Amino acid sequence: MMKVTVELDCTPEEARRLMGLPDVGQLNDTYVSELSKLLKGASSVEQLQSFTKIIAPMGEAGIKMFSSFLSGAMGAGQTGEKPAPSDKKD
Predict the structure, then answer these.
(1) Longest alpha-carbon distance in the chain
(2) Distance CA 76, CA 33 (A)
(3) 3-state secondary structure 24-68
(4) In whole angstroms, what is the distance from residue 40 CA to residue 33 CA?
(5) Is residue 60 packed enough to be buried (19+ CB in 10 Å), middle (13-18) or exposed (0-12)?
(6) What whole-number distance in Å separates Cα of residue 7 and Cα of residue 57?
(7) What whole-number distance in Å separates Cα of residue 62 and Cα of residue 56?
(8) CB 3.0–4.6 Å: which of 42, 54, 60, 89 could bond 48 by disulfide?
(9) Which residues of 18-34 are buried (b: 16+ CB within 10 A; e: fewer)?
(10) Is 61's pLDDT higher than 90?
């Protein structure tokens, strides 16, 4: 068996074009902008969770991840400690 490794030195934009993927930058910017406006109007964690149930692209898994993020951030803010790093590897 032979293993060949190819390394490309390019920007993410160049890689996207090379692989023929669509440019969704403007769509993403619009989504993030609208989501930010919506979340800035929330006055409680419950309201944030309610909003994310409506708009979360990952459904229930996304809600659970967002909820754990909020819980960790709130806990860290109260104790002054940073949240523990995730065991997940990229």
Answers:
(1) 60
(2) 27
(3) CHHHHHHHHHHHHHHHHCCCCHHHHHHHHHHHCCCHHHHHHHHHH
(4) 11
(5) exposed
(6) 32
(7) 6
(8) 42
(9) eeeeeeeeeeeeeeeee
(10) no
Structure tokens at 53: 């149930």
First-to-last alpha carbon distance for the chain, in angstroms, is 27
Mean pLDDT of 77-90: 52
pLDDT of residue 9: 93
Q: What is the C-alpha to C-alpha distance for residues 90 and 43, in angstroms, rounded to an integer?
A: 34
**pTM to 2 decimals?**
0.40
Residue with tokens 């997940």: 88
